[in-house]
Write a structure and sequence with these properties.
The protein has 15 helices and 33 strands. By secondary structure, it is an alpha+beta fold.
Length: 572
């Protein structure tokens, strides 16, 4: 490709709304342009990266035995009603009606559609295993699209769905996909971890997230360096190292005035206490019924754990009006002492506390020296807190560390969640009808691009992994109008193209400094400079974008040296 014929609209400045490196650099390097909130055009350079990732995914999926299909983006509401997700999915589901007033959804995922396909086409145990995949646009009406393509309303996903006759076979299908994902993200050049994860709206018995490690990541993973245990923050388990003060003598309950103090920081500062000496009372509606959850002031309630324990369909935090209705006090002053009409659950760490501070269910008032059993009753102690760095690993007892990451892929063991509700059955070898056992597996292509940039960038621009770089080599002709420089530059450009090297030549009438800056910005791994040194000494200067290493080679060595660099980087 000749730069003069391409569309690579690089910029010096980026919109103020671009918060993270990948968003800024994708705009600045001319990869994307915004159409509307959460909607982007991928320009030619950006689409080349997209296409490379797509090909890597397709190659590994095909090797793993998956079958590529194409399902409609617009999916009928009837299928969503069969699984109950038409209402459960919430406002993220983009809905529309056709001219006959029939309801449809723009698919954020395709479990319903593919299960309908399977129940129609798979009749016998002999027809399995089957794994169908597609690379397709998806839609989610994000309440707050942000971070560029990282959280957008329309995106391309590779989604796959496996169908098996029993659990052992389903485990084997899951294992194949897990291994394929390891290969995909390794080939894309990402530094990633596979971690245990919560299954969320997709459901199923367990799942794994594949997280690209990045300081800017929205997600947190908890990792044990000693034994390798890793899980996302929603799934992670960790034993609190908190020893408590449970041997203290119980002191008399005392109501204290705390005018205008309603946050943990305000109350503990006002009373000269530590956050670990206060117990937060969090009020929720669980399928319409009130429930209270207690955690230490320096801990965070893990809503998913509470949700899972209660076994309810919907768990939502009470509104300010509901808090006042049930606790008789404004938000920030609720407490377990005298709280009636609901069950009270507490985190295990609260059981180690004595003489703690809690809300008094009265405006501007708190209790000091509150104690469970004596002053109020706990229905059950359980693990309710969000694990954090410094907690102890539940597998080996070592200290856990916290890392930030970007979710680029997710694998789910679905079991019979969808086949049961949609009656996706087959005839087994014993002559009985049985439910298909399913798995599903997703990869966000744009997230892979963003994650690669978050992991590979510097003050000058992007640093692409060789496998997904839009081009492997950029030839920078310093003065393309000079006939001798033009001859040398065109000569190696044509040779590289003929020999299968992905190359772009910067043939623009621009200054050397301008061209160098653009080359650094778009992040091509290998830069070859053709200038006076080439004309006068027969030397071509090579610079490696990743390391900054520079050296010069003669014409007869140029191709073999560049090919060696490209191959070395591709196999890493």
């Amino acid at each position: 490709m000749r730069w003069s014929s391409a569309l690579i609209p690089t910029l010096k400045e980026v919109p103020a709304e671009a918060e993270i490196a990948s968003h800024k650099l994708m705009i600045k390097a001319g990869l994307i342009r915004k159409v509307a909130s959460g909607l982007y055009n991928f320009l030619p350079l950006g689409f080349k990266i997209y296409y490379k990732i797509e090909n890597i995914i397709r190659e590994e999926m095909d090797k793993a035995g998956a079958l590529e299909i194409l399902m409609p983006i617009m999916t009928p509401a009837e299928l969503w009603h069969e699984t109950g997700r038409w209402n459960l999915y919430g406002k993220e589901l983009m809905r529309l009606k056709d001219r006959a007033d029939r309801e449809f959804a723009l698919g954020p995922t395709h479990e319903e559609v593919v299960t309908d396909l399977a129940r129609t086409e798979i009749k016998s145990y002999r027809d399995m295993p089957k794994n169908f995949y597609q690379i397709r646009n998806k839609f989610r009406d994000e309440i707050r699209p942000r971070f560029g393509v990282m959280r957008s309303r329309e995106f391309v996903m590779k989604d796959a769905y496996s169908f098996d006759r029993n659990e052992p076979c389903a485990e084997e299908s899951y294992k194949k996909m897990f291994e394929a994902y390891i290969k995909i993200f390794s080939r894309c050049g990402l530094n990633f971890r596979a971690v245990e994860a919560d299954s969320g709206n997709i459901g199923g018995s367990f799942s794994h997230e594949f997280m690209a490690l990045a300081a800017s990541g929205e997600d947190t993973l908890i990792n044990c360096p000693a034994c390798g245990y890793a899980a996302d923050r929603e799934k992670a388990e960790g034993a609190s190292p908190f020893c408590g003060n449970e041997k203290e003598v119980l002191k008399p309950l005392e109501k204290v005035s705390t005018p205008g103090q309603h946050t943990v920081e305000q109350v503990t500062g006002f009373l000269n206490k530590k956050a670990s000496e206060l117990v937060k009372t969090l009020l929720y509606m669980a399928d319409g019924k009130p429930v209270a959850a207690l955690v230490k002031g320096d801990d965070e309630l893990h809503e998913i754990k509470l949700h899972r324990f209660l076994g309810v369909t919907e768990l939502v935090m009470m509104t300010a009006q509901q808090v006042e209705e049930f606790s008789k006090a404004p938000v920030g002053f609720a407490g377990p002492v005298g709280l009636t009409g609901m069950k009270i659950f507490a985190d295990n760490a609260v059981s180690k506390l004595r003489n703690f501070v809690t809300g008094a269910n009265e405006k501007d008032m708190h209790y000091a020296n509150a104690n469970f059993d004596r002053d109020f009753k706990i229905n059950k102690f359980l693990d309710l807190r969000v694990p954090k760095e410094g907690d102890l690993c539940v597998k080996c007892g070592s200290a856990l560390v916290s890392l930030k990451g970007i979710v680029v892929g997710h694998t789910y063991k679905l079991g019979t969640k969808y086949s049961k509700s949609m009656k996706a059955e087959f005839l087994d070898e014993d002559g009985k009808r049985k439910l298909m056992v399913m798995g599903c597996y997703g990869i966000g292509l744009a997230r892979v691009i963003a994650a690669a940039i978050e992991q590979g960038n510097d003050a000058s621009g992007i640093i692409w992994p060789m496998a997904i770089s839009p081009y492997q080599v950029i030839i920078t002709a310093l003065n393309y109008k000079d006939e001798k420089i033009k001859l040398f530059a065109d000569s190696i450009y044509e040779e590289f193209k003929a020999k299968g090297v992905e190359v772009i030549i910067d043939d623009r009438d621009m200054s050397a400094g301008f061209k160098f800056k653009d080359a650094e910005l778009i992040g091509i791994p290998v830069r070859i400079t053709v200038g006076n040194k080439t004309v006068n000494e027969g030397l071509f200067e090579i610079k490696l974008r990743k390391t900054g290493e520079e050296f010069a080679v003669k014409r007869e060595e140029l191709f073999s040296k560049v090919k060696e660099i490209v191959q070395r980087e591709l196999v890493k």
